[in-house]
Each structure stands twice: as C-alpha cells, then as structure tokens.
Amino acid sequence: MSASRACLTCASCGRVLPVRAPDTSCACGGLLEAQLGQQLGGRALRARFDARLARDDAGQGSGVWRFRELLLPGRGALVSHPEGNTALYRRAALERFTGLADLRLKHEGENPTGSFKDRGMTVAVTQALRAGARAVACASTGNTSASMAAYAAQAGLPALVFVPAGKVAAGKLAQALAYGARTLLVRGDFDACLRLVREASAALGITLLNSINPWRLEGQKTIVLELLQQSRWQAPDWIVVPAGNLGNTAAFGKALREARELGLIDRLPRLAAIQAAGANPFYRSFKTGFRRRFEVQAETVATAIRIGDPASFERGVRAIRETRGVVAQVSDAEILAAKAIVDGTGIGCEPASAASVAGARQLRRAGVIGARESVVCILTGHVLKDAESVMDYHVARRRRGSNPPVEIDARVASVARFLPR
Ligand code: F0G
C-alpha cells in the first residue's frame, strides 16, 4: 500500500475529500469510495484481528469493529450493538440439494436486527455522529430501515424511513415503527423511494444512510473479512450473494481487492451475484458483457430485492470483473424451493436470502461451479423477517413439502396419530 492518508474519492470525477467530510455522495452526483490509509501488512493485520477474536474485546466484541483498521479511520465513540460474529453452517441436506460437496452458509440474519445491514449501519451511523448529522434517512425494501431505525435510536438521532407502500414484509415494517423511526409509506416502488430520499436529504440537510453512503460499504466488507477469518484466511473458491441494489456485491469486491492487496489472502474467490428473475437488471447487463445498463419494473416474492435500477451498478460491475465473477437469475419458484430446504434444516432465512442457495444450485447444474469447489452462500436475513411468505407457503398455498398446522381437541387421543409410526 502507498503511504497515503485515508480519504474519500469520487468514482466519477476523481475529487478527493477528507474522511471526516459530512458528504455521503459527491457534488457531481458520483458515488464516493473510502480509500484505506497506510496499513500494516497482511501477516501483522491477521495476527491483530486473530488476537482480538481470542480476547473477544474488540469494539465490545463486535464482529465489525474487530476489523477497524480497514473501516473508519479516527477515534471516538462507536455506535455498536455489537453486531457481526455470525455463524458458518454446514448441512448435508443443502449439500444434496445443491450438488456441492463443500458448501457453507454464512447467516447474516443472526445480526442484532436480523440482517446484514447492521454491519454497514454501525459504521455509517458512527460516522454520521462524528460528522455532526442532525437526522438520518434511507429508502428501503425493509431491512435497511429496520437497521437504521435501531442504530439511530441508539445514537439519539431522528430517523426518517421511506418504504414502498404495501411492499415491505411486516416484520421489517414493525421494527422501523418499534425502534421509533418516522416511517413514510411512499406510493411507488423502491426505486422511487430512493430517488425521493436522495432529493429530500440533499434539500433538507439530512444524512443519507443508503448504501450510496460509502461508510455502509466499509462495514459490509466485514461479512467477507469475518468469513475469511473463520476459514483461517483460506479463501473459498466461490462466494454467492443475493443481489438487489448491489451494495453487498460492491462491498464484497472491495473487501476482496483490499484483502489481496494487503496480503490477508493470496488468492481471490470468485463472486456470484444472484438476482430474482423478476428484478434482474444486473443479470441482463452481465449477459451483454456489461456493455448495456438496464432498468426494469421489478416484481418478485423476494421483496428485499425487488429493485429495478440498482444504485451501486458501476461498482457492482467492477466487483464481478475483478473476481472473474458471474451473475445469475433465479425464478420465484426456485427461491421458494431453496428457502424450504434452508428452513427445513432448522437454519431458516427470508426469501431473498435463499436466492444465494438457489443460485449456487443452478450454477452447479450448469457446470459453472465444480462439484468439489468450496462455496460459501450468504444468507442475508432472518426467517422471521417475512413470516407472511412462510404462512403463504405452508398454509395458504400448500406447496410441495408444505407443513400446515393442524387444529385439534384438547385430548390425548387426538395427539397419537401425529406421531411417526
Ligand atoms: N437480501 C436482503 C435480505 C436484503 O434486505 C437486501 C437488500 C439484499 C439481499 C440485497 O442486497 O441491495 O446490497 O444488493 N435490502 C435493501 C433494503 C435494499 O432496503 O433493506 P444489496
């Protein structure tokens, strides 16, 4: 690494801003990216991160702030729950379902508000406070708003949430209300919400906490850093991630680029970004070799990724190119089938999360991923986020393998027939 200081740079016009700047995007409209300052080498950094894990005291035990050298420079209080420290699971049923012999699932639904968003939010809210924010806002398909509401509550910042009316899972909406965010149900889709919140925050001097905000991505890098650490710094062959607004895809690409440059790892995993077929602008673009960019009218059961015009498109492209990655699309039926298997192992996840497992299965079948390659699928959100989809699957529609509840009289005789013979 160069001996430069940490800063923010604009991906479009090249402008350089100091780290403590309150800006969350460039005056030219381009997206800002955090640049690491001078760093220790990989061996020394690994030793430091591993020692913190052993002591378990980094940033009060946070699986994000353990990696603080690679996140937000400068000192000050942290707004941390704490977050991170999510498990990596192996399940035989999922290996059979996908045809992959070495498959692990990293469950980001185990974060404090039930999704990976907490990793980005702890960094972005910490930075917002340091930069003197008076209020924070985001557009959301649900999880970002739940997470922002919780961290804003902890920080004592007023929070304004913009969500598409009627298109947010009840668990997520309930969280935003419970944590005390002022919640606006916008007549329009997520893309309309994002346009509105960008304009409103610029006009009203509110700090924008969508993944456009560079500090969100810095925090989300720790999904990859933590999974590398859990793998003793041996990178898997593939990391498979659901893709909507492309914040995670971009953050994963940046984490891997930096991890390789610093010598934390010596080879890059390939990224596979998985979209819902009804919300597939990134997949369509991939099919043209990224020569064209698309905007679609999005519709999918996986409401978390019901997004037609992803904000981090350019940096998503960079992440896929730099990791020799791929983009795939999966149907709603494939998503629900994969979710039923994940749920049935006792792990559980929300529909969008299951896109990663459905995508891994499809890429294995197409021969893109080899049967013996090591794969980590990211589960992005908790099963209880979207209880409606579970009830719809098992009760209302009775799909294959569905498990409806049975009403009985309160007598032992009514119970016996439910025991396996
Ligand atoms: N999975 C879940 C559960 C999500 O909530 C999201 C995004 C994604 C995957 C896609 O991640 O946008 O980084 O590509 N949810 C955002 C929100 C849009 O508002 O909660 P991405």
Q: What is this structure, in a nutshell?
A:
Helix content is 38%, strand content 14%. The protein is an alpha/beta fold and 421 residues long.
Defining key terms:
421 residues; alpha/beta; four-stranded parallel sheet; 13 helices; 13 strands; globular
List the helices and strands and how they pair.
Elements: E1 7-10, E2 16-17, E3 32-35, H1 42-55, E4 88-89, H2 92-98, E5 102-107, H3 117-130, E6 136-139, H4 143-155, E7 159-164, H5 170-178, E8 182-186, H6 190-204, E9 207-208, H7 214-230, E10 238-242, H8 247-262, E11 270-276, H9 281-287, H10 313-322, E12 326-330, H11 332-344, H12 351-365, E13 374-379, H13 387-396
Parallel strand pairs: 5-13, 6-7, 6-9, 7-8, 10-11, 10-13, 11-12
Antiparallel strand pairs: 1-2, 1-3, 4-5
Helix pairs in contact: 3-4, 3-7, 4-5, 7-8, 8-10, 11-12
Can you walk through the features of this model?
- This protein is of the alpha/beta class.
- The protein is 38% helix and 14% strand.
- The chain is built from 13 helices and 13 strands.
- The protein has helices at residues 42-55, 92-98, 117-130, 143-155, 170-178, 190-204, 214-230, 247-262, 281-287, 313-322, 332-344, 351-365, 387-396, and strands at 7-10, 16-17, 32-35, 88-89, 102-107, 136-139, 159-164, 182-186, 207-208, 238-242, 270-276, 326-330, 374-379.
- A six-stranded mixed sheet has the order 4-5-13-10-11-12, with helices on both faces. The protein has a four-stranded parallel sheet with strand order 8-7-6-9, sandwiched between helices.
- Strand 10 (238-242), helix 8 and strand 11 (270-276) form a beta-alpha-beta unit.
- Helix 7 packs across helix 8.
- The longest helix is centred in the middle third of the chain and has 17 residues, at 214-230.
- The radius of gyration is 21 Å and the shape is globular.
- Residues 115, 117, 140-144, 211, 242-249, 304-305, 350, 352-353, 380-381 line the site of ligand F0G.
